[in-house]
Amino acid sequence: MTTTRDRLLDAATELFYRDGVHIGVEALCRTAGVSKRSMYQLFSSKDEVLAVALERRAPDYANAFFPASQDAGSARERILYVFERLEKLSAEPEYHGCPYLAVQVELKDPEHPASEVARVVKGRLTEGFRALAEEGGARDPQLLARQLTLVFDGASARAGARVETLDGLVTPTVSALLDAAGVA
Amino acid sequence: MTTTRDRLLDAATELFYRDGVHIGVEALCRTAGVSKRSMYQLFSSKDEVLAVALERRAPDYANAFFPASQDAGSARERILYVFERLEKLSAEPEYHGCPYLAVQVELKDPEHPASEVARVVKGRLTEGFRALAEEGGARDPQLLARQLTLVFDGASARAGARVETLDGLVTPTVSALLDAAGVA
Q1: How would you class B104 by CB atoms within 10 Å of its CB: exposed for 0-12, middle for 13-18, buried for 19 or more?
Q2: HSE (side-chain half, CA atoms, 13 Å) at A125
Q3: How far is B179 from chain A (nearest CA, A)?
Q4: Is the Cβ of A152 closer than 8 Å to some Cβ of chain B?
Q5: Contact between B98 and B157 (Cβ < 8 Å)
Q6: Residues A22/A12, Cβ–Cβ less than 8 Å
Q7: Which ipTM did the prediction report?
Q8: In B, which residues are within 8 Å of A108 by CB distance?
Q9: What is the signed CA dihedral for A118, A3, A48, A110, rounded to 10 degrees?
Q10: Rounded-to-integer distance, Cα B101 and Cα A79, Å
């Protein structure tokens, strides 16, 4: 059974992603089919709904990009896999870029609770890259991880804005960075 | 003498950049010291103010990143210079990322007049990269130009969100891509 809380978080995930974080409480509650009174019994503010919705989505986000270990190839292959997944996701019509980057860009406030969630989730992506970079023998695993996150965010922002398609673009970019870092 | 039009566009440039495109007409007119009536005599909508303000800022944006030809070094140096400038700009306290990328991310609508302006302005950045890539003998100038724009956008978004500092990050990233493309 779907609870009021789940309905609110589902609506928040969809609406904020599709239309932006500035969607109001009225529209959120209408989409969720929940009264404002019920919303404020569960959450202190719209900002909290946004932050909790982003947090709830984090495990799916991680699973989407890092394959289960039984399918794993070399560290290089697993890094390239992240970007193959991004390329596939970004070709879907409802893709609007990385939801965590979008929130950071839209809120323009690193102290906002939702920006903090985004920072933690994207920090895990960088950490995933760093672990693979180390396993793959990168000369400077931390630098490579930051470079890969930069490419990930640039690619997702540009594809999300429909000004770029990632096919034939991210794989050669990431390959060049892996080569330069000494990850064979 | 500053005209009403200039005051509106100055306020729009500052407010939309600092707080986002969802700032309302009231706040815009209040900051500009202009009545709503006067605004609507000059512009058909807030969206038009936003688009015109972005268009007006475009020449400064281009000049900020591409040096005047008398200072020009090799094609490789001039490409690296773009990212040195970005690194400097991004360290300023009022930096919130590339204004054109921000608008695209926030509006989530490629057909919006302001998204179209942003697409044209960033298209010129990519074209500037492409011309330098060709001059520098890149194997695939168009691919290199797209890669550099990807890094530019990822770097500006992450630095603007205060989750990354570009020092020691963009120069090695761009150098690796230039090396891979055969730009000496």
Answers
A1: buried
A2: 28
A3: 9
A4: yes
A5: yes
A6: no
A7: 0.95
A8: 18-20, 96, 160
A9: 10
A10: 26
